[in-house]
């Protein structure tokens, strides 16, 4: 009887984690479309991050105090403080670059690029010897191959998205090219710049996640960490905006004060829920399972973009997404197999390799 109750609780936890992660991806995708629309109306990305960060910190503070107070260190060392500042700087810069890149490309691109992060994290962890790699092992070779496919797919998707796919626009360009041969480029420079912003953002995100692994050793409280980094990020983003625009723009020239307050509170709530639940899922099941749900966000964002703002995603971009997801799947499969072998204390066998991936 007791065993049945334990199995029931475990099943409910599994359902809650899977359902919650799917919900997180839907929320993130919808939020990406909303932010893209708001930025198209004139609200700057730095303004969004500047006021979203304190909203996230304010909304998460009671939850962090109630649930993680016992996990706080008795004394914050100078090394821990420095790491938290660096993490906040990295997270803030990541958000700014993501919003800039998404504004120049599309929300679908903004949610597709984070799928490269597991591969980049693998490379950075390999450099810092946080990831074991044995070239003689089949699983290690599959991880390397998956990483390469992720990067190739991301670049292919970025290039294809930058090309003009609208037939009418191509005809207009052809007519214009006859009269002006210098105007016949098929690449959109703004979209290429946006793709560069997104790639830089994901590289920075990968480095920040590796830094989090070190911080968790002294500060194992993910929600509290989010509160602190969001609070610090407010001042960092405000400094960025002051350097770039020589003033702190509030967005009152675009929206009313009431609408801005409601929007920033909504952004803070969505950001806080997504980060908190993802951190809890990582604590329960590890980052591999959580990363497997990232492609759902890309599909949701593409659907939302087409339905709400009429964005067209080219066939070539979907081909790049397919290559990227294939590489991601190979990487996660090999990583999971290695963790199973380490957990059981066994050795890799040929019968294990021959098992189908979708068993």
The N- and C-terminal alpha carbons lie at a distance of 31 Å
Average predicted confidence as pLDDT: 75
Dominant shape: globular
Number of strands: 0
Structural class, by secondary structure, is mainly alpha
Largest sheet: none
- Helices, by number, come to 14
Element-level helix/strand string = HHHHHHHHHHHHHH
Poorly predicted spans: 164-185, 348-359
Assembly type: single chain
Report the portion of residues in β strands.
Answer: under 5%
Percent helix: over 70%
Rg (CA only): 22 Å
Key traits:
359 residues, mainly alpha, disordered C terminus
Describe the structure concisely for a colleague.
This protein has 359 residues and is mostly helical.
Give the SSE layout.
Blueprint: H1 2-40, H2 45-68, H3 78-104, H4 107-112, H5 117-127, H6 138-162, H7 167-179, H8 189-218, H9 222-245, H10 257-285, H11 287-291, H12 294-308, H13 315-344, H14 350-353
Protein architecture, described:
With 359 residues, the chain is mainly alpha-helical. 79% of the residues lie in helices and 0% in strands. The chain has 14 helices and no strands. It has helices at 2-40, 45-68, 78-104, 107-112, 117-127, 138-162, 167-179, 189-218, 222-245, 257-285, 287-291, 294-308, 315-344, 350-353. Helix 2 (45-68) packs antiparallel against helix 9 (222-245), helix 3 (78-104) runs antiparallel to helix 8 (189-218) and helix 6 (138-162) packs antiparallel against helix 8 (189-218). The radius of gyration is 22 Å and the shape is globular. It starts with a helix and ends in a 6-residue tail after the last helix. 38% of the residues are buried.
